[in-house]
Structures are given as C-alpha cells and as structure tokens.
Amino acid sequence: MTTEWRSYRYVGPAELKARVRPGDEGHSVRTPEDLARWFSSRGPEERAEPFTFVIGTDGLLRLAPRRSEHVSCAGGAPVLSAGEMSFLQSSGRWSITDVSNQSTGYCPDPSSWPSVAAALARAGIVHPGGFTHEVVFRRCPACDEVNVVREGDFVCVFCESPLPDNWNVDGHHIH
Description:
With 175 residues, the protein is α+β, with helices and mostly antiparallel strands. It contains five helices and seven strands, in the order αβααββαββαββ.
C-alpha cells in the first residue's frame, strides 16, 4: 500500500539553501539503534534541547542539532514534514516527548503529521499521536508574506488582509 502525502519544497531564504552541499543532510534514523548511536554522540547540552527533524520524501526521519537549518537537514530536497522534536529513553524504549511542525523554511501544514507518525513507527520510536505544538502557516495573497496564524486569527500581521483557510505557502506541490 502506498500513501500519497503532500511534499513541501523549501520556501525560506535562498542564501540558506545555497549553502547546502552534497552530503549535507541529517542523520537518518531507521531503527532505535540508529537513534541511540547518534544520540550518544551528542553533547549533554545538545541532548537537553529539541532536535531539528525532517521527514524525507523517502519517508525516513532525519535529525540534526537544533540550531541546524531544516534545508540542510533535508540536503536541500523537498520534505514530507519538518520541525523540532525531543526524545526520552525509558526502559530501553525511545519515545517523543514534544514534537512540532515549526519550520519556517518549509512551513509544513499540521496535516503532515501522518508522515511523521509513519517514520517514527518505522524506526520503532513511540510518539504522542500528533504534534504536541501545531504551527499554522499561511502566505498572504495581498502582500506575499508568510504568516504564523496565532489563536485562529487568519489576518496578515504585515498588511492586515485576510488569510486563506487552506495551506497556501508554496502553491507548488510535488508528489
């Protein structure tokens, strides 16, 4: 069974994408052991923070340190989702304590959660069943600025024009 999910191309600053070099992508996590090996190579301060993540169009979870750009973690490629996540290891099992779709470079819709859930399940990582913090992104049709919709107020913070109900940041979908 193949699932068709929306993919998101990078919509952030062009200069950040221009810095991405071949091989610049996050650590692929296919198994709990992949996660344990990578996590153990991180310093204590880094392990205490959320990590940058993307779900590649291949369905794999890729991780990078929090201060990494999502476009670098993705190797410049489109993604199925992106954001930040925090981990906990307890009784030999890995789980996600917090996960968001907070990525201003890709601006994924909260509806991208199923691709995150599938990648985590494939990697044997317990997840909370949805984003613990959802970010709603919309592009203003009037001024073309990307907005974070807060408290359900679909009004552009830049020009006060109404924002659309449906995700429209990219306008270009790759399947």
